[in-house]
Amino acid sequence: MTPIKQEKIQTKDLRYYAALSGDKLQSKWKTIVIFIPFAWLLLFFLTPFFIVAKISLAELVITSPPFSKMIEWVDGSVITIRLVFDNFIYIFDDPLYARTYLNSVKIALISTFLALLIGYPIAYAIVRSKPVTKQLLLFAIILPFWTSFLLRVYAWMGLLADQGTINNILIYLGVTDTPIRLLYTEFAVYIGIVYTYLPFMILPLYANMEKLDSSLNEAAADLGSGPINTFFKITLPLSMPGIIAGSLLVFIPATGEYVIPDLLGGGNVQMIGRQLYNEFARNIDWPVASAVAIVLLLLLVLPMAIYQHYQAKAAEVK
Amino acid sequence: MVNVKTSSGSGALTDTNEIKKDKPLLEIRGVSKKFGDFIAVNNVDLDIYQGELFCLLGGSGCGKTTLLRMLAGFEKPSSGQILIDGQDMSDVPPYKRPTNMMFQNYALFPHMTVEKNIAFGLEQDGIAKTEISDKIDSILKLVELQDYKKRRPQQLSGGQRQRVALARALVKQPKLLLLDEPLGALDKKLREQTQFELMNIQDKVGVTFVVVTHDQEEAMTLSTRIAVMDRGRFIQTGTPTEIYEYPGDRFVADFIGSANILDGKVVSNLEGMIEVSTYLGKFSFKSNSNISEGSNLFVGLRPEKISISKATSKSKGTTGYIDDIGYFGNTSRYKVRLDEGQIIDVTAQNQKRPKDAKDRLTYENKVNLSWDNSSAMLLLK
To answer: Quick one: B217 and B346 in the same domain?
Structure first.
């Protein structure tokens, strides 16, 4: 029997049982319950997206709001729809944007990799620890969320500055005579991003690894596999869903990050979030800012959509 | 451990499978395991020989799984020594032991096909690819899963997974195969069928099996020898027949099968003959135990060893009334209230189909009970 056929029978069966239970009131409630998050997404995600998309296809004009109308009545009888692609052409023409996008993706990728490198052993250790320690460690992971994100970035500025804590300690220890430049470098941006997004890597990894059956590791050992081989052949492949979830949760916000490169990178680190802010707030060029946002969104959504597509296909094969 | 040499037939009991008793394959020497204050396994000694199918039998928490895990190397004994084929296993990690285990939940790798699951252990030994695929083919043939090579564990039924787990453990041809509740996850019909398959497979491959189970029926059918465990200790070790017919104490008599346990008092102990008086009369046993006159012990009488018949006016001996009936089709189980008030369990074969209602034993019938005194079991505690 082909898997697709199996699937069909299953859904048919489900419907059959649903019909048997025959509780129409219940199915009405189901619709309502599903409708609420759907309406939420529609109202607060999809609508703003279309507004931004619309602005990205407008022209800069000195009015309020500062962009041209898309749909206009001309002479009271003709509707004109103006779609201006100048903003996108401008973004693709000016190498500054391409470079900034690439730099953002590069920084986000490296940060994600570093967060994974640090987060994986931490998640692994939490899973393996005793129940009481586990609660304590998980609490410690979540603890930073209780203070303001901005405050924590400012704290890093204090640590990394030329006259900051780290340099003072290094000078006191005689490692260096003059302060090492840490703040306003790409290094500082990496520290900021990895530090800020580490919990988003650890928590999905923890959730995934917590579910892994420890008897699988024992089975591998029993079959003659040493600890390192067991890790690469059993634990790592089985924790892939957690790795992917955690990596997406770090990579996506890191790509569009504005505060960290602005405060810790200064003018030296070009990231698309800062570029977007500059277009929007300094140049007051809403159409270009919107186009930058749309391109960023496509840049992030496309790989995810492709991944989802293959995931779904793989699930179908199973 | 209690060791009772009881009445007549004790010497006549021989294993059905001849097992060479020259040098044990597995030697367990004074092994204990403590978890904090809790003693899971308490000073256990055991020898298991090549080709045996040995069952560790006991209720949950009796330490049987802990003992098995110590054999596999997942737990370290707190004290004592485990030797396999004469080699001390104390410092040998699980992945270097000549044992393989079949896990209770099978622990099949979900991200690998049946074929890859079985190949995993062979790959660790650095065996050539062609040889691996030959071995996989022959082991899958043995467990009758040739057509399931490319399936993943979640696409298999419970019985099929069980066989994949068995194949994966067997394919490495371990000296010792450890099975943790191998049939526990299967339904009753499949379990019965698989019991015999398991015995056939063991017979074919000749690997020594150590099986952990809580199911006394499973232990009785499968094994060449059984160790009954309770609270971390071995209570009794022997062949299924020995354990069933000559249990050493109340616990074993009650745990394996069922038994009427009668309070008894030693009347006399002369020249290896112990006479015990109970409310069902006197019983005598051959025993070299030096138990003194007047001390209390128990006598066990299995329900199927008592015959039951409708009492007639001429009936002598023990009589009583039927209090309760359990009808199982092939057998019936009666609870008989004796004239003195005690309740005795009796099992009878339903050999003939009753012709009419009068032909059948029923509630409040007066019945006559009889048994062969030599079927009684002396239980020292």
So the answer is: no
| Residue at B56: amino acid letter | L
- 8 Å CB contact of A233 and B120: yes
Domain termination site, one of B245, B270, B292: B245
Min Cα separation B112/chain A (Å): 10
Mutate to test the interface with A, among B76, B95, B101, B116 (most CBs of A within 10 A): B95
Q: Give CA torsion, residues A104, A108, A109, A113, to 10 deg.
A: 160
Give B-chain residues touching A218 at CB under 8 angstroms.
72, 74, 94, 101, 103, 107
Instruction: Enumerate the residues of chain B whose CB falls inside 8 A of the CB of residue A224.
Output: 95-96, 121, 124-125, 172
Distance CA(B65)–CA(B33), nearest Å, equals 11
Closest CA to B162 of B145, B177, B150: B145
* B202 in the same domain as B334: no
* Cβ contact, residue pair B100, A221, below 8 Å: no
The whole domain housing B47 covers: 8-245
Predicted ipTM of the assembly: 0.80
DSSP states of B91-114 as a string? T--GGGSSEEEE-TT----TTS-H
Q: Does residue B231 belong to any structural domain of this protein?
A: yes
> What are the structural domain ranges in chain A?
94-284
Interface of B with A in 179-218 (CB under 8 A): none
Residue B250 lies in a domain: no
To the question of domain A94-284 being in CATH 1.10.3720.10, the answer is: yes
- Res B155: pLDDT: 93
Which of B:123-152 have CB within 8 Å of A?
124-125, 152
State the nearest Cα–Cα gap between B204 and chain A, in angstroms: 21
How many distinct structural domains can be found in chain B?
Answer: 2
Q: Are residues B229 and B122 in the same domain?
A: yes
Q: pLDDT band for position A259 (50/70/90)?
A: very high
* Most confident among A64-78, A138-152, B274-288, B342-356 (mean pLDDT): A138-152
* Distances B251 to B44, B82, B259, B375 between C-alpha atoms, Å: 18, 27, 10, 18
Find the helix or strand (DSSP H, E) in which A172 lies: helix A165-172
